[in-house]
Amino acid sequence: MLIAKDIRIYIIEDDEIQAEILRDKLSELNKGTPIKVFTNEDELYTDFDKNLSSKNFNIVILDYFLQNEKNTNTSNADTIVQILKEKYPSTSIIIYSAYESDNKLDFNAFTEDNDNVISFVKKSEHGYLGIQNLLRFNYIGWQLKRRTRQLKKASLIFATIAIAATIYFTLASL
């Protein structure tokens, strides 16, 4: 179990049963983590525009094929990834699909070509564990980057104070 209050998980999945199973499996990872489920990208964009915070580790688990009888106007992952990359660049994405490719696209290659896509996970009984492990690993990396930035800021402030003090005492002794 991972204990973190600054993780936000967003699932875009057109299959309601699959979405609930995924939500349940991910809630085992970190009790109390907000997990929001959307059936299309417009719901996600609306929520992001209102609630997204760069202070959190935001991750989208995105079903590649979202178009079905109910969601005929929904985009597939390639379009959604590009929009997320442009509008919400700090958001990480996991592509989640029952297929490893479609006629035009290999999902593993797609993952390598998009910086904010951290991985592709095939839907299977082991897929949930794979997503949990990816969340743990990437959250720790995100924390490390954040703490490194904080340390750099603190070091800069300390150096500034040290220089100011040196100048002050040098001028005071003249």
Structure description:
The chain has one domain (7-145): Rossmann fold (3-Layer(aba) Sandwich). 51% of the residues lie in helices and 17% in strands. It has helices at 16-29, 41-51, 77-87, 107-113, 127-172; strands at 7-12, 35-38, 57-63, 92-97, 117-122. Helix 1 packs across helix 5 (127-172). It is elongated and about 80 Å long. It starts with 6 loop residues before the first strand and ends with a helix. The model has no long low-confidence stretch (mean pLDDT 83).
For this entry, give a set of tags.
174 residues, alpha/beta, Rossmann fold, 5-stranded parallel sheet, 5 strands, 17% strand, elongated
Determine the CATH superfamily: Response regulator
Structural class: alpha/beta
Annotated CATH architecture: 3-Layer(aba) Sandwich
Number of strands: 5
Radius of gyration, in Å, reads 21 Å
The CATH top-level class label: Alpha Beta
Distance between the termini: 61 Å
Strand content: 15-25%
Count of DSSP-assigned helices: 5
Order of strands in the sheet with the most strands?
Answer: 2-1-3-4-5
Overall 3D shape: elongated
Low-pLDDT windows of residues: none
CATH topology: Rossmann fold
SSE succession = EHEHEHEHEH
Mean pLDDT: 83
The major β-sheet equals: 5 strands, parallel
